UniProtKB/TrEMBL annotation:
<dbReference type="Pfam" id="PF13354">
    <property type="entry name" value="Beta-lactamase2"/>
</dbReference>
<dbReference type="InterPro" id="IPR012338">
    <property type="entry name" value="Beta-lactam/transpept-like"/>
</dbReference>
<feature type="compositionally biased region" description="Basic residues">
    <location>
        <begin position="10"/>
        <end position="21"/>
    </location>
</feature>
<dbReference type="GO" id="GO:0008800">
    <property type="term" value="F:beta-lactamase activity"/>
</dbReference>
<feature type="region of interest" description="Disordered">
    <location>
        <begin position="1"/>
        <end position="24"/>
    </location>
</feature>
<feature type="domain" description="Beta-lactamase class A catalytic">
    <location>
        <begin position="51"/>
        <end position="271"/>
    </location>
</feature>
<dbReference type="InterPro" id="IPR000871">
    <property type="entry name" value="Beta-lactam_class-A"/>
</dbReference>
<keyword id="KW-0378">Hydrolase</keyword>
<protein>
    <submittedName>
        <fullName>Beta-lactamase class A</fullName>
        <ecNumber>3.5.2.6</ecNumber>
    </submittedName>
</protein>
<dbReference type="GO" id="GO:0046677">
    <property type="term" value="P:response to antibiotic"/>
</dbReference>
<dbReference type="GO" id="GO:0030655">
    <property type="term" value="P:beta-lactam antibiotic catabolic process"/>
</dbReference>
<dbReference type="InterPro" id="IPR045155">
    <property type="entry name" value="Beta-lactam_cat"/>
</dbReference>
Length: 301
């Protein structure tokens, strides 16, 4: 994306109607998070968020949860669902070795680009996406299964406002999709709640995806409030268990997850889109997401 394209896109988003913020109807436990996100919206940040009780499905918190937002790497979850579906009922394909090719090369997140091995098993690539949102592994898996297959799987799940639009690119030209992925907070909370309940495709498929996502090492956004070890949180820590996926791009910070605690469990999603013109703007967004995380932690713990 060129600077001019980014400016034009931010201008379009700044004119989008922000809809109804249902803070007055939200559980009073979420007043702090609602205030923090409202302040961001007043400062020109586009915000969409939702939290639901995992056991009852009750809406706990909602801010423009129907709005389609850029979600960066969160769309990779849809790729993982498709890969897990192909592995269902068989263990042999998990060991299929895939080679990286020059056309797959991409920078930013992930570790495979820094490793010597030119080939890795399919299941290992999925684990790398879950752990570090590995861009190179994403492109290799997408080349293997096909973006059209991921789109078909997304449609079969009934998702109409959430999609993986493209492979990962260092630079997006005028003929490329403007974002890697998009999604609405309402659909994303449903997706993660359904994964947690074993309802996406099958219990086996859901559990495999949850296993990959449980490796995620990015706890820089909402999950920064949970006090967990970023590199090791696959088992409960002080009664808290998290599975999440984040998305980061220029002016985009997004997170979706399931948080379990001694008192309750929640599915949540928060997406922000902002003019990332200075460090203070970015830190304000991250702090607002953390404030909501503190409310989520209090609800479950």
């Amino acid at each position: 994306m060129t600077p001019s394209q980014g400016s034009e896109r931010r201008a379009r988003h700044s004119n989008v109607h922000r809809g109804k913020h249902r803070g007055e109807e939200a559980n009073e436990n979420f007043a702090r998070g609602f205030l923090a996100l409202s302040e961001l919206a007043l400062a020109g940040v586009q915000v969409s968020a939702r939290a639901t009780d995992l056991a009852t499905g009750k809406e706990l918190f909602s801010v423009d949860d129907h709005v389609v937002m850029p979600t960066a790497s969160i769309g990779k979850v849809l790729l993982l669902v498709e890969v897990a579906s192909r592995l269902a009922g068989t263990s042999a394909e998990a060991f299929t070795v895939l080679d990286r090719a020059p056309r797959d090369a991409v920078g930013d997140s992930g570790i495979w680009q820094h490793l010597q091995s030119p080939s890795l098993p399919l299941a290992d690539l999925a684990a790398m996406i879950g752990a570090t949102s590995d861009n190179l592994a994403t492109n290799v898996l997408l080349r293997h299964v096909g973006l059209e297959s991921v789109r078909a799987r997304t449609e079969a799940l009934g998702l109409t406002r959430t999609a993986l639009l493209d492979l990962v690119r260092d630079h997006r030209g005028p003929d490329d999709a403007p974002q890697l992925s998009i999604g609405s907070a309402k659909e994303l909370t449903w997706l993660f709640a359904s994964l947690a309940r074993g309802e996406i495709v099958s219990p086996e498929v859901s559990q495999r995806v949850i296993g990959w996502l449980s490796l995620n090492s990015d706890l820089s956004m909402v999950a920064s409030a949970f006090g967990l070890d970023p590199l090791a949180h696959r088992t409960p820590d002080h009664g808290v268990l998290l599975v999440n996926k984040t998305g980061t791009d220029g002016g985009v910070r997004s997170e979706v997850g399931v948080l379990r605690g001694p008192r309750a469990s929640v599915s949540y999603a928060v997406s922000t889109y902002f003019a990332d013109t200075g460090l203070s703007s970015r830190l304000a967004v991250l702090d607002g997401m953390r404030q909501l995380g503190m409310d989520l932690l209090e609800y479950v713990h």
